[in-house]
Design a protein that fits this description.
This is Serpin family protein. By secondary structure, the protein is of the alpha/beta class. It has nine helices and 17 strands. A hairpin with a 3-residue loop joins strand 13 and strand 14.
Length: 421
Amino acid sequence: MKIKTGLAVGIFTVLVSCQTLSAQGLVAAANTSFSIDFYKQHSEKEPGNVFFSPVSISIALSMVYPGARNETAEEIKTVMGFLKKPEKQSAEVSYLIQDVTAAGSPFRVVNTVWVQKGVPFQQEFLTITAEYFKTSLKEANFDDPEGARQEINKTIETQTNNKIKELLPTEAIHSDVLMVLTNAVYFKDSWASPFKKELTSSQNFYPTSGDPIKTMFMQHAGKFPGFENEVVSVLELPYKNADYSLIVLLPKGDMKTFEEQYLTAENYIEWTSSCQSVPFKEIVFPRFKMDHRIDVQKILKDFGMTRSFNASQADFTGIYDGPENLFISDILHKAFIDVNEEGTEAAAATAIGMAIRGAAPTPRDFIANHPFIFVIREKNPTAFYSWANLPCRSPRRNNIFDNHRHERYYQPHYSRQPQNS
């Protein structure tokens, strides 16, 4: 098989191979569907390079879910595909976190609840987040918005090995904020079979439109898990930790048709589960680094989750039952990835602001020199999902492949069906 890949959509996920109907399997399957739907919705409205961690977004919203009530809880459940009972959702997400962060895992998850000192939050909610999500409870002075913002950003930066900086932009925090829930995820591992640096060379990458762009491509050969049909070529690049791998989906036609007609959770599971060890006489894959910021709130509103963001309609009395209504003021997300000859480093963080009103086959080649999709997966959930119609150029953005020097900002969207369990 011959594969030459250009850059793709990136999804930093812990992709759980859920082949059972257990609650944990349903949670993982919902996260896989969320990853693809979120990406496709974003791609439709914001064409270009995308990299995000659906598992980070899902964990953050799973922390909020036990505190939602009535129609607010129903909307979150429907849009996110959560289990019907919040306590069961919390328990199953807890199991997934334990699984992907087991001893020796290259994957790390850190959850934090930042609260305004002196505010009477519901103790049951704080207990649930501590028990199931292993959250650290930290007091913040939101009456000093800039000071609180800097403290949260610095903590996130530390939790992601200095890869996620300034998650909360200027003025993201204001004096009406009472709570901020944050999730940080970090991954770093070497390839099981590294690329040889001396083989890396400059070649053309062919974007969806425009002229070819000179890009640094890594090269490899040998036996790797792969799959091919009339629609897509799939390559799996294992990491040293055998539970993790990078999946590359290289469409055989144009990316837009592939997304609209073929990119579904069902097809993804079928393609990846059909991968078998096959000989590749040539694998050509770009070396790249990028980061991407997303306003998740806009995306979730598109999918019908509106009450949570409405100060007069939101019902989070399971978190705070004070004289003024608590609602979600922001959901911010940022992700980073660096893919090179040695391996992959990726990180992501999500922040949810809660405020009150006022605020033996024939050898193949794999030449990835046109848009493709890649997924970092664990044999179990979906951690990072990324898409790249790369490289893209604009007056303010250069080629992200340029000598592996540039970091970039990009963006995603989504729709889900609830799981009943």
